[in-house]
Amino acid sequence: MDEFLIFHPTQIFGGISVLFQSLHDKSNITSYRTIIESAFYRNNVRKIDSLAEAYFLAESSTGTIITDIPVYRPEFHDLPSGAKILVFNDGAVIGRCAQARRIAFTPDVDEKKFGEVLREAVYQTRFKTMYHAQSVIGLHPDFMVRANLLIPEGFENTLYNWLINFQTINTKYAEMYANSRKIDDLEIFIFSDPYWTHPDFPLGLTFFDPMHNVAAILGMRYFGEFKKGTLTLAWGTANRHGYASCHGGIKRYDDKKFVAAFFGLSGSGKSTLSHNKHGGKYKITIVHDDAFIISMEDGSSIALEPSYFDKTADYEIGHPDNKYILSAQNVGVSVDEDGKMFLITEDIRNGNGRAIKSRLWSPNRVDKLDDPINAIFWLMKDPAMPPITRIEDPILASTMGTTLATKRTSAERVVGVSLDKLVVEPYANPFRTYPLADDYVKFKELIEKGVQCYVLNTGAFMGKDIKKEVTLGILEQIVEGTAQFEPWKDVEEFSFIPIDGFIPDMNDSEYRNFFKERMMDRLEFIRSRDEETKGYDKLPEETFEAIEKITEGL
To answer: How confident is the model at residue 8 (pLDDT cuts 50, 70, 90)?
Structure first.
C-alpha cells in the first residue's frame, strides 16, 4: 500500500512554497485566510497519516455501522485488507442548504462581523481534538490543487468520506502533484465544526473566501456540504486559470468520437446519462458524473474527483452495482437469515440516501479527456420545453444555460420554499463564488467554437412525463447524426425533434401563453441578477435581448 504523505504548507514544491508566495503577495493575506489557516497549526490538531488510519478512526467512531459487506478491492483504494462498507446516518437534515452560504467581499457580507464569527468559532474548538487531512482536487498534472480539512473528533466518518471522495495524497499523487503545472494560486484550507451553533445562523453557516481559497463549514453534519464546499473553492480556482467550471457529467461515445457534457442539479438525470451505455450499444469512456472542468484553450476536460457520490434511490437492495460502494450515508441496514448486515437502499429510510462509489464502477474511466467537447446538454425540468431543443446562436445558447430551469430535490435543504417550485439555477451550479458573467462568457465562447448546444427536458412536458427511454433515444440520434430537427413555429431560434405527444404546438393558445410566461420568467431572472446581487452577478445586455426577441415574437 502506498504511504499517505502529509506535507506542511511551507514544504517546497518546484522550489516555491505556498507560504513564501503568500508572504510576498500581500493580497493573499486576508483576515479570513489568516484566521482559518492558523487554526491548523494549534497543538490540539492531529494529522492523519494514511487513509487506513482514517478508516480505523471511522470504524471506531460512535454511531458507525460496520456492515458485513467487504469493500471491493480495498488495496486499490489504499484501504486495509478486509475493510468493510461503513454506514453513518445523520438526523433530520439529509441535504445541502444553499441558504446558509455566505461569500466574502460580496454585498451585504460585513467583513468585521464575519471575522468575529470565524475567530470565535475557531476558539470554541480549542478543547477539542481536531483532525487534519489532506487531498488533491484535480486528477491530472494540468490541474491539481491541494486541499486541507480540519474537523473535530466525533466526525471521523466525515473525515473518512472526504478522503475517499477526493484523492488522498499517496506516493503516486504526491509525485504527480510535485510535477504538476504550477498554478499561481493558494492551496485550499477548510475549517469545520459541526457542533457549532449561533443564534444568527439557525441553519448553520458555510462561509467562503474564494479568492483566497479558505472556507468554514459550521453547524453542518451532512457530508454533501463538505464535498460541495471543497469543490466550490476548486471550481473557483479553475475559473481563474482558464477553465470552465462544470457541475455535471461528461463522457465520450468512443466509436463515434463524440464527447457529450450534461449539466443538471442532483436528480436531473446527469449521473444516469453520464454512465448509461445504451444497453451496450456503445462503448463509453467517462471522465466524471458530477465535477469536472473544461479547458478554454483546447476543449479538453479533467475530472476533479476519483469517486462518485451517488444516490442510492435507483439501486434496489442487492443491485450488482452496489458492490462498488465504499461507504454509505443516510441509508438503512438490516440482517439476513444468517445474521449478515446488508444495505436498505431505495430511499426507504429517508430521501437522498447516498453512497460513495469506487471509480471502478466505471470500467472505462479516465481522468483527462484530450478529445474536445462536442455537445452541451442543459438538463431542465421546465414543462414548457419539449424533450429536446436545439439552439445554434451562441448568445441564446449560453443564456439558456444561465436561465436553466429545474426543480429542487431532496438533495437540497430548503426552508420556506416548496421543492415543487420551478427555480432557475444558472448552469446547474449553485456553488459558484465568482461573478455569473464569467460562466456566461466561457460557455458562449465554447459554443462559438463549434460546440453544439441542446436543452434536454428530463421532467415532464405539459403534464406528460418524459421517460428515460425517450431521452436516451434522442441522444442516440444526435450521436449517430440522424436526428431530424424541425423549426419551432414562431420561435425561429429553436428547433426540436418531433415526437408523438411532445410537440410544442404554438397554435394552442394555452401552450403558447404558458411558453411565453416561462420565457418572461427568464427575462425577470436576468434583470434580477443586477439588482439582487448589487451588480455582482450582472449579465451582459445581450442575454436579455436574446430572450426578449423570442417573447416579442409571441
So the answer is: very low
